[in-house]
Amino acid sequence: MLLYGLLGSSLVQIIAFIICGDSGYGDHFRTIGEKLGPIEIGFIKIGDYGEDLGWRDIHMHTEQSVQAAIDLKANIMFPIRWGTLNLSNHDWYEPINLAVQYI
Prior knowledge:
alpha/beta, three-stranded parallel β-sheet, two-stranded antiparallel ribbon
């Protein structure tokens, strides 16, 4: 939806965006993309992953986060919540470096 006015010089544009919190990778991303896509911006969590931590149901590896953005039909992926807490064994900058590589 795009509303604009010349006399009041105002512009309101509504876009579809999603903010993903703690979530493991799954079919739910594809379902959202099919029903609500395309999504303009996907704010998708990367980081704090590790097989030894048992967090597969709540923390995605970076490549899964990128796949989630594809499944959501997101035009832009904005990686979030990386480098905030030291909860896993990966290098501090590994998630964002991998995201840039995969995108």
